Write the structure tokens for this entry.
Amino acid sequence: MSDKKYLRNDKLPHIWCPGCGNGIVLSALERALEQANVDKDKTVIVSGIGCSSRMPTYMDFNTLHTTHGRALAFATGVKLANPELTVFVIMGDGDATAIGGNHLIHACRRNIGLNAIVVNNNIYGMTGGQYSPLTPTGMKATTAPYGMVERNFDLCELAHAAGATYVARGTVFHAKPLTDLILESMDNDGFSMVEVLSTCPIGFGRRNKIRGNYELMEWVKNRAVNVKAAAKMSEEDLRGKLLIGRLYSEPAEEYTKCYDKIIEIAGKEAKR
Amino acid sequence: MPAKYQKEIDTRLCKGCGICVDLCPKEVYDRDALGKPIIARDENCVYCKQCMLHCPDFAIEFIPLKEGEA
Ligand SMILES: Cc1ncc(C[n+]2csc(CCOP(=O)(O)OP(=O)(O)O)c2C)c(N)n1
Ligand code: SF4
Ligand code: SF4
Ligand code: SF4
């Protein structure tokens, strides 16, 4: 019987398929929260809709399982109402970059103090494996039976360009470094995003003839290059690779703090 | 390597995904008929905990052994 400090252990086993990366992400996240020793009553976990968005169901906090693509909108409300709270937002790649893409860029732009975790399993897992804006070009999906025609986003570059002040990428193959990145992201006052290269053995792996659960984790590993190692590699060698590690850390004033100042100014004006 | 932990596999939580078996650098585990791990060569274990860290189902636990328990 699992007895993890921050899990609703009685809700296990979870609903995810055997070998699904979501469980590895949840495990890494739980360890980060343990190491940070967060206060259960001052931490909120928000998610959208998707397999990965089931994560809060298993987490022993105040949790909000919202609507597809809108997790950041709900989380923005939570944070503005009570800026003291630590707010995690868990989203799938479809959730965060397709239907919720606009919420993502504007949360980045505002630099609101949320900790976003985007579980990128390259596919819409829950609805049966349709492609997402993060499906790598050429890979198969139910809606791309001959291979994905479109180019995929580099999500971390997108978040950085939109204004996120902490951006990192981890993978389910590198479980311990993932915990370290999540922990580090919590130190940033403003908007933090950790993209996790994850696995959907059912919707993505099988369709792309990567059959074993561990084989799919190795496929993820082979797509990734540590940002420090990348500095010594040629452009040729880096083609098609995704950088992992801490990519950007550029602290700036957090949104609810800026907002507090407006409240103060407006209050003074009203008294005049 | 002398045992520092006792490994426990929760077969109720385990879904037999095979990740721990495939990932262990020391081939500590065999598979049972359902694909769930059997601790077959515990003496080879180097306690890297990679199996536990990558189990998607919270099914592997390392329970620290007190001195003299090994
Ligand atoms: C407004 C709305 N549109 C569509 C859906 C159907 N739907 C549910 S989950 C999902 C996509 C899930 O993919 P992703 O966000 O990548 O998460 P994953 O399941 O892969 O973790 C979609 C399209 C919905 N629930 N609500
Ligand atoms: S469909 Fe994919 S993402 Fe969803 S639980 Fe199964 S393996 Fe995980
Ligand atoms: S701790 Fe390391 S060596 Fe021991 S069983 Fe697990 S993966 Fe194998
Ligand atoms: S990794 Fe976990 S769920 Fe998968 S076979 Fe091993 S113990 Fe079972």
In short: Chain B has a mean pLDDT of 94. Residues B 9, 14-20, 36-37, 55, 57, 59-60 surround iron/sulfur cluster (ligand 4) (CB under 6 Å). Chain B is about 15% helix and 25% strand. Residues 28 and 42 of chain B are 6 Å apart (CA to CA).
